[in-house]
Amino acid sequence: MKILGIETSCDETAASIVKDGREIISNVVASSSDLHKKTGGIIPEVAAREQLRCIIPVIEEALGQKINKKNPDIDAVAVTSGPGLIGSLLIGVETAKTLAYIFKKPIIPVNHLQGHLYANFLSKGKPTFPALGLVVSGGHTDLVLILDHQKIKWLGGTRDDAAGECFDKCARLLGLGYPGGPTISKEAQEFDKKERNITLPRPMINTSDFDFSFSGLKTAVLNKTRELKEKDKLNKKIIQELAFEIQEAICDVLVKKTIKATEKYEVKSLLLAGGVTANPKLREKIKEEIDPKVNLFIPPPSLCTDNATYIAAYAYFNFRPKPWSKIKADSSLTIEEMIK
Ligand code: KG4
Ligand code: ZN
Predict the structure, then answer these.
(1) Which atom of ligand 1 sits closest to the CA of residue 137?
(2) How far does residue 310's CA lie from ligand 2's centre (Å)?
(3) Which site in 197, 233, 332, 339 is 20 to 30 Å from 317, CA atoms measured?
(4) Are the C-beta atoms of residues 324 and 43 closer than 8 Å to each other?
(5) 2-119+302-326 belongs to which homologous superfamily?
(6) Does the CB atom of residue 127 touch ligand 1 within 6 A?
(7) Which bound ligand lies closest to the C-alpha atom of 36?
């Protein structure tokens, strides 16, 4: 079965065809992040306008043909219906509904956060349940227990900023570019850890729950950069050191809580998902700490950040079409919510 996936929840316009939930036939992503670099973050109106400009060319490239030519070789359409920026979501959802109608194909709405986890089904092995899922993106930090397809239990999540948001905001404080995860990671690599002097907090690292908090770390970076600026000491080397320590702090908290949850729930697999899991340090630390008996799945970096392959994969493994007229964009879906 070939499914056309469409993803427009934030600042990426993406379309992909995936065969039987595992084989990527096409994967096209247009990102408006260059526009957001200028403003240091996403302006939803700007992101939505870019979605509108890109959606048809991106889908046509993924299909390998113009939409108004013969019906394409697909069996269904899948689309992210939430959560995300409402203006961006609407472009994908309404386009997908129209295509399903004109192609006379079933349509499956997909929860973006659950979708992220299915990037792990596009790899060689196949995750076994029960599995633990860590979804860390620009807007979300969630730990979930996956008992089976359609059976997701939320264990904990961030009480304030998401991990990706913390990377993005700290990068802005350091004068580094958007998105902050890759720019902080790049600067951190330049730092020699033997010269480490600065220590930042690791909020909630030892609490017994599975919640996270990253706003205190951001405030600590704000205070530190202010202090250094006043003394005229915020130079390239200190920025690299701060980048290193920010990355360490975020990864330490994510890894500690994730490993604790794998032990408590005695899971067979651990699935990492979301843009932040493209981070090399996080990938390295989790590989070091995980019990070898647990099957670890980490998507290749290009499938961690937003794209439509995992939306199509999710729809294959959770094939629940809905009448197109009943599908609505929902900006505030939670990770546990099944789309009814
Ligand atoms: O999953 P994603 O592409 O979009 C959302 O659903 O939010 O995640 C975007 C987030 C951004 O906050 C970005 O800074 C972060 O993922 N990110 C990274 C890396 N690449 C992207 N964070 C840390 N290290 C990276 N290499
Ligand atoms: Zn995402």
Answers:
(1) 8
(2) 10
(3) 332
(4) no
(5) ATPase, nucleotide binding domain (3.30.420.40)
(6) no
(7) 1
**Tell me, which fold does domain 129-297 have in CATH?**
Nucleotidyltransferase; domain 5 (3.30.420)
Task: Please name the residue ranges forming H helices in 190-328.
Answer: 215-230, 236-264, 280-289, 301-304, 309-317
Is 316 within 8 Å of 95 (Cβ atoms)?
no
3-state helix, strand and coil shares in percent for the chain, rounded to the nearest 5: 45, 20, 35
What atom in ligand 1 is closest to the CA of residue 165? 12
The number of the ligand nearest the C-alpha atom of 112 reads 2
The two tokens of residue 111 are: 């929860």
Q: Checking phi first, is residue 82 left (phi over 0); if not, alpha (psi -120 to 50) or beta?
A: left
Full pLDDT tens readout for the chain, 340 residues? 999 999 999 999 999 999 999 999 999 999 877 877 777 778 999 999 999 999 999 999 999 999 987 889 999 999 999 999 999 999 999 999 999 999 999 999 999 999 999 999 997 789 999 999 999 999 999 999 999 999 999 999 999 999 999 999 999 999 998 899 999 999 999 999 999 999 999 999 999 999 999 999 999 999 999 999 999 999 999 999 999 999 999 999 999 999 999 999 999 999 999 999 999 999 999 999 999 999 999 999 999 999 999 999 999 999 999 999 999 999 999 999 998 7
Instruction: Give yes or no for residue 171 CB within 6 A of ligand 1.
Output: no
Where, residue-wise, is CATH 3.30.420.40 in the chain? Answer: 2-119+302-326, 129-297
CA of 332 to the centre of ligand 1 (A): 19
